[in-house]
TrEMBL record:
<feature type="domain" description="Phage capsid-like C-terminal">
    <location>
        <begin position="137"/>
        <end position="422"/>
    </location>
</feature>
<dbReference type="InterPro" id="IPR054612">
    <property type="entry name" value="Phage_capsid-like_C"/>
</dbReference>
<dbReference type="Pfam" id="PF05065">
    <property type="entry name" value="Phage_capsid"/>
</dbReference>
<protein>
    <submittedName>
        <fullName>Phage major capsid protein</fullName>
    </submittedName>
</protein>
<dbReference type="InterPro" id="IPR024455">
    <property type="entry name" value="Phage_capsid"/>
</dbReference>
Length: 423
C-alpha cells in the first residue's frame, strides 16, 4: 500500500487552493466590471435626461459618472492582470524541446548569471559559430527564456498582440508588395487570351533596432539556488520591453527604433493612394461633431474594405475610450460594451477594442483612433536571440544584467488600417 507523506498532500492541496483562488478572483473581477458598467449606464442616462430637461447636467451627476468611469478602467485593468497571470505557464511550457545541447546551454548560462563564469558559454557559442553576440559582448539566453519573454510581450504589448510577427536571423527584413493589382478578365472557352499587365512591385524594408533593459539583482538573490533566475530575468524585462515597444509601434519615427503606424503620411480616405494611410475627419477640430457624434465611427468602419473588416478592431487610449463609452446609437443602445468573458475584449460597434496608451489624446488634427486589420496591416520583426551581459562593477553592491533584443516594425499593407482625424 502506498503511503502519501503529509508534505506531498499539503503541496497538492496548496496548488488546488491557489488555482481555485485565482478562478474566484477572476470571476469576482468580471462581476465587478459588469456591475460597474450597469451603474455607468444608469448614471449616464440620468445625465442625458438632465441635459435634455435643463440644457446642462447636474454637477453631482457629472462627478458620479467620472468616478464610475474611473472604476470601470481600474476594474478592467485588474481583470486583464488576473487573466494574464492565470494564463502564465511554467517557463518551459510551449518552448522548443530541450536536447542535450540546450540543457548544457542552460546550465552554462545559470553559472554565468550566478557567478560570472563565462567559459562554458564561450565554448558553446564558438562550437555553434553563433552570431548572436554583438561587438559589445554578452551571451545568448536559453531558448526557454527567449520564448517566454516573447510570449509575455505578445500579451502585454498592445500592437504586438495584434500584428503579424516574423523572426529573422539577420538585421533586416525585406518583402515585396504589389502597388497595383494584376489585370484579369473573363473570356469564352475558345476565345484568344489577351496578354495582361503585370503587377507593379515595390520593396519594403524593416530593420531590427536594439532595445535594452538593465535589471539589477543582489548577490544574495544570485547565491540562492532555490530562485529560478530564468523566470526572474523574464519577469524583470517584460514590462520594460512591452512599454518601449508599445510606444514605438504607434509613434516611433524609425530612427533607432521601429516605425509606428502614426508616423506615416496620411491622406483623406476618399483620395487614398498606396504608401499612405487613409483617414476620416470628424468635422470638428479636436472633438467629435456636436450632432450625431457616433456617425463618424460608422464612416470609419465602412471606410475599410470588407475583406479587412472581418478581422478588424479599434485602437485608442483610455481617455478617448471614456468619451466613446457615453455614446448611443439611434435606438438608445450603448455603442461600447464590456467584455462578455475573461478571454474577450470590450467591443465598439461589435468590433474588439484594444487600449494603447501611446495613442494620442484628442486635439486639433490628432489621429487618436485607429481601425483596421492589424494582422495584415502591421509587421513586427524579431531578430532571433536575446542577449545578456553581466555587469558587477557599475552599481556595487548590485549586479546589473544588460539585456538586449533586436526588434523592428512598420506598416506592410497601407489599405488595412484607417485613422480617425479630429479635424
Amino acid at each position: 500500500m502506498t503511503v502519501h507523506t503529509p508534505i506531498e498532500t499539503k503541496s497538492a492541496q496548496s496548488l488546488e487552493n491557489k488555482a481555485a483562488g485565482a478562478d474566484s478572483a477572476v470571476a469576482e473581477a468580471m462581476g465587478e466590471l459588469q456591475r460597474a458598467f450597469a451603474a455607468f449606464r444608469e448614471t449616464n442616462d440620468t445625465r442625458l435626461a438632465e441635459i435634455e430637461g435643463r440644457l446642462s447636467a447636474d454637477v453631482v451627476t457629472e462627478e458620479k459618472l467620472a468616478r464610475i468611469d474611473a472604476a470601470l478602467d481600474t476594474t478592467r485593468t485588474r481583470l486583464d492582470r488576473l487573466t494574464l497571470d492565470g494564463r502564465r505557464a511554467p517557463l518551459d511550457a510551449g518552448a522548443p524541446p530541450r536536447d542535450a545541447a540546450a540543457t548544457e546551454h542552460k546550465a552554462a548560462f545559470d553559472l554565468y548569471v550566478r557567478a560570472g563564469e563565462s567559459g562554458g558559454l564561450k565554448r558553446l557559442e564558438e562550437k555553434a559559430l553563433s552570431a548572436g553576440s554583438g561587438p559589445d559582448g554578452g551571451y545568448l539566453v536559453p531558448a526557454t527564456v527567449e520564448h517566454e519573454v516573447l510570449t509575455r510581450l505578445a500579451r502585454l504589448s498592445p500592437i504586438r498582440g495584434l500584428a503579424t510577427v516574423r523572426t529573422i536571423s539577420s538585421g533586416l527584413y525585406k518583402r515585396a508588395v504589389s502597388v497595383t493589382e494584376a489585370a484579369a478578365g473573363w473570356v469564352a472557352e475558345a476565345a484568344p487570351r489577351p496578354q495582361t499587365d503585370a503587377p507593379t512591385l515595390s520593396e519594403l524594408s524593416f530593420p531590427a533596432m536594439e532595445l535594452y533593459a538593465m535589471p539589477a539583482a543582489t548577490q544574495t538573490l544570485l547565491d540562492d539556488t532555490v530562485v529560478d533566475l530564468d523566470a526572474w530575468l523574464a519577469d524583470e524585462v517584460e514590462t520594460t520591453f512591452a512599454e518601449q515597444e508599445g510606444t514605438a509601434f504607434v509613434t516611433g519615427n524609425g530612427v533607432s527604433r521601429p516605425r509606428g503606424f502614426l508616423s506615416y503620411d496620411t491622406v483623406a480616405n476618399a483620395a487614398w493612394v498606396p504608401g499612405k494611410l487613409g483617414f476620416v475627419a470628424t468635422g470638428a477640430a479636436g472633438a467629435f461633431p456636436a450632432a450625431n457624434p457616433a456617425d463618424v465611427l460608422f464612416d470609419l468602419v465602412y471606410g475599410l474594405r470588407a475583406g479587412y473588416r472581418q478581422n478588424a478592431g479599434f485602437v485608442m487610449n483610455r481617455r478617448l475610450q471614456s468619451t466613446i463609452r457615453k455614446m448611443k446609437d439611434a435606438d438608445g443602445n450603448y455603442l461600447w460594451q464590456p467584455p462578455q468573458g475573461t478571454d474577450r475584449a470590450a467591443t465598439l460597434l461589435g468590433f474588439p477594442v484594444t487600449e494603447a496608451e501611446a495613442m494620442p489624446d484628442t486635439a486639433a488634427n490628432s489621429l487618436s483612433l485607429a481601425f483596421g486589420d492589424f494582422r495584415r496591416g502591421y509587421l513586427v520583426v524579431d531578430r532571433a536571440g536575446l542577449r545578456v551581459l553581466r555587469d558587477p562593477y557599475s552599481a556595487k553592491p548590485y549586479v546589473l544584467f544588460y539585456t538586449t533584443k533586436r526588434v523592428g516594425g512598420g506598416v506592410q499593407d497601407f489599405d488595412a488600417i484607417k485613422l480617425l482625424k479630429f479635424a
